[in-house]
Each structure stands twice: as structure tokens, then as C-alpha cells.
Amino acid sequence: MFIAAAIVSVLLALVLVFSAVGKLTKNPQQVESMTSVGFPVDKMWLLALAELAGAVGLIAGLFWWPIGLAAAIGVVAYFLGAVLMHLRANDKTIAPAGVLMLVAVVAAILVPVAA
Q1: Would you state the pLDDT for residue 110?
Q2: What distance in Å separates the CA atoms of residue 115 and residue 112, rounded to the nearest whole number?
Q3: Dist. CA 61–CA 81, nearest whole Å
Q4: Per residue in 46-74, pLDDT tens?
Q5: Cβ count near 62 (within 10 Å)
Q6: Of 11, 23, 34, 49, which Cα lies nearest the Cα of 82?
Q7: With 90 as the cut, is the pLDDT of residue 115 above it?
Q8: Angle CA(59)–CA(82)–CA(1) in degrees, nearest 5?
Q9: Pairwise CA distance, residues 63 & 35, whole Å
Q10: Which of 5, 25, 105, 109 is the most buried (most CB within 10 A)?
Q11: Which helix (H) or strand (E) holds 98?
């Protein structure tokens, strides 16, 4: 079970880092997505910080599962917020945030079980 938790955690952490880099470098695609849901572009760095914290927590959780569980729950909350922002803005590109939220739920389930 540890291998499954490690694979899910590492892959999710990589996606979070990739997304954070896009936000920090103001990737045009991410800027467009943020403006379409009404999120202020000058505050994107806060989202990037949350994503990086989640990625670090997921990796640290492979060594001490309570941190991984807390990080996974935080990532679930982060993507739940993203889903809600897309719904509020009546934006149709909700699938990426929804899928990543589900992957974070899987990580939250696997991390304590693998301990």
C-alpha cells in the first residue's frame, strides 16, 4: 500500500509544483483562467504558495504520515475552492480542478493506510 501512496503523492506533488511555477511566472493560460473566475491576478502568488506547501507536505508525508494526511486534506480544500470558484463564475473548465481534488482525496485515504 505504501507504493500506491507514494505514487499518488509524488505525482500530485509534481502537478502542484508545475501549477505553482505557472502561477509564479504568470503563465498566460493560468492568468486567463484566473481572470475568468474573478480571481485577482496579483494574488496568484498566494495560490502558488499554497500549492508548494501542499507538495512539500505530500512528500514529507511519505516519511511521517500525519503530515501527508494534513497536506492531502489541505489540497482537497484548495481544489474544492477552485471547483467552487469555477461554478460561481459559471466556467465550464471545471474538470482539471475536480480531477485533482479527487486525486487528493485518494492521497488522503492512502497515506494513513500505508503507514
Answers
A1: 94
A2: 5
A3: 23
A4: 999 999 999 999 999 999 999 999 999 99
A5: 18
A6: 34
A7: no
A8: 30
A9: 38
A10: 5
A11: helix 95-114
Which pLDDT score is estimated for 93?
87
Of 109, 110, 108, 87, the residue nearest 97 (C-alpha): 87
Element (H, E) at 71: helix 65-88
The string over 16-32, giving b where at least 16 C-beta atoms fall within 10 Å of a residue's C-beta and e elsewhere, is: bbebbebbbeeeeebbe
Degrees to nearest 5, angle at CA 74 with 84 and 11: 95
| First CA to last CA distance, the chain | 8
Half-sphere exposure of 61 (CA within 13 A, CB side): 35
Break the chain into its structural domains and give their ranges: 2-114
Please name the residue that has the C-alpha cell 485577482. 40
Rg (CA), the chain: 14
At which residue does the C-alpha cell 505525482 appear? 11
